[in-house]
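Lab meeting minutes (informal)
Scribe: AK
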Amino acid sequence: MSTEENKAILRDSFEAIFNQHRVDRADEFYGANYLDRGTAPEQAGLDGAKQTWSSYIAGVPDLRATIVELIAEGDKVAVAWTAEGTHRGELLGLPPTGRHIRLSGLVLYRLDAGRIAELVAGTAPMSSSRVGDPAGKSTNTSTERSKALLDEVRRLVPEIDQLDRPRLFNFEFAHGPDQRQVTAGADRIYPGAGQITVHIAVSSRGAWRLPCTGRTGGEPCTRIEEFADGSTAYLRTYTVPDTVGHAYDVTLVKPDGTGVSVSSAAYRPEGAEMPDAPLSLDRVLEIARRITVTP
């Protein structure tokens, strides 16, 4: 398929699924073995993606998406998008608020034989208005806490300033009254090539996810470290699938059950003119131990 044909597939899929709300047409655009490695790697393939799209449409029944820019090279298409609508149904476990919301994001897809085969890299959606319940709990929105985390990240991670035109982000995600995650970081997408990301999150008890386990059958940890204050760090390093780029992930679980997660990764195909992950495994651990913002 040509790059123009691949771009047309993305345009048509956005129109059908997010504007016409025809999630049932997803199989026309997505491969049966579709994989999301970027925004929601825990999803169960295309069926999981359909469930996620349906839940957003149910929560925002007038949802409309706009493609801001499409850039394609080879079998990959980068999409900058915005979406908006009214929060009239349950959304991410939160009751309807009647508020208008606006989201934006940036994703990189790989296509194969006329189908979207993989979301290889992406950023979590940014929101310009509150989505939370009337009590003020919010999801996917910039808050004072997330802005404070971004300030701390910029102070602790000078490597961000060495990136070429990085995009900074910060937002807070609340899933119910007891689970909250505050996120900040930076990323850089190289159109037609790949993406590098530095991602930091502080999470309330039970809202974090380990990058690896010490148990048989899970992703093996590169190492597990225990500290005098009772914290435990789970560290994993690996080569990003189908690339020569590296990823370094750590989750520091504190004695009170809260967690700090730091990752540095590069989706860097062989021969791509772009840097590798900007932080080493020891650096992501050092940063995790120095973060002071709480969820």
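Next up, CB showed the second protein from the same session:
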Amino acid sequence: MATIRAFQAQRPPKEKAVDVSAPPYDVVSTEEARELAAGNPLSFLHVSRPEIDLPDETDIHSDAVYAKAKENFEKLKAAAPLSVEEAPSLYVYRLRMGEQQQTGIAACCSIDEYDSDVVRKHERTRKDKEDDRTRHMVMLRAQTGPVFLTYRGRRQIDEIVARVQTEEPLYDFTAPDGVGHAIWRVGEAETQRLIEEFGAVPLIYIADGHHRAASAARARALLKAGDPDHTGIEEYNFFLSVLFPADQLRILPYNRVVKDLSGKPADQFLTAVSAQFEVSEAASPLPLQKGEICMYLEGRWHSLKLPVGTTTPIDPISTLDVSVLQERVLEPLLGITDVRTDKRIDFVGGIRGPKALEAMVNDGQAAVAFSMYPVTVEELMAIADAKEVMPPKSTWFEPKLRDGLLSHLI
């Protein structure tokens, strides 16, 4: 059963929340972070992407970068200022983007439960990315961005969350990207009730933030090794998270673009694709159902569907449309065997829409684009329950949480 823990959040004052909060460190490049933080000394990007305050040629994994993160964190604590709550608490965190709204619980989760797979994973992590955030956490002695978790909803939890939202929020603002963020501090009695109710939730799942969670586990191992009085209840034994009920989440597709057709003329490539799929003119650049892939080639959208009667494996990974595309087009027709390392393929989050795919093909950045139908949360959970790993770049969650609003000191 899942364990959640109240924590003493470090957070900015209400009037500075917009200035301090920042997009997750891993969805912006150094150049984008530098542009977003320009003219705003309170932006948390100075802490999460501290290389923006160092010379352009600086190695982003150098000692100087992590030292700068610590220096900037200390400056921000004084300048914002960032204060630490007097008592541990849970928080209700509501995200709103257009018509999409989801409300979760900001809490700390157990690294022991992460290790024992009560916290389920569906993605492999990269050592270099783990190394980066582990060093960042240990240097700051803080987890400054939450892991995005989900669970199968529970009515009793929903009722408590709804009651909390009748109170005055700590924050309620719209970020520059148009996403609304509202946070409420949960009172002592309801905090205890939520902890008890989550005790009846059998499993929780990482939706987004596998590297943050893995890095928190590695940081715990390092801090534990240096702590002769370790008891198991130190703050470094828990990781910052926000837990959302699965039925409120929206997964957007993660689309694909390929730079060339592996030497094939476009008409020959289309003929080869037609041997694998039923190909027709697409009524929309967005697939209308699972089992349909839309392809943009030479200024036209095509609908790709497996022929009626095609026998396909029934395991949860092989049934994903991204797997079908990989096995029938990317590898056999375009020679892309490993999408993690092949420089000819790139990935475009569904938030950017089909126009972004068209633009990349039309201006010559890519030769062909594939618009995918989104994976469902149930598919994600089924793969995690099977102890399998989803294909790379299969899911894009929107809206995203902000860094810097609630930090967990370890």
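CB comment: The chain has a mean pLDDT of 96.
No objections, moving on.
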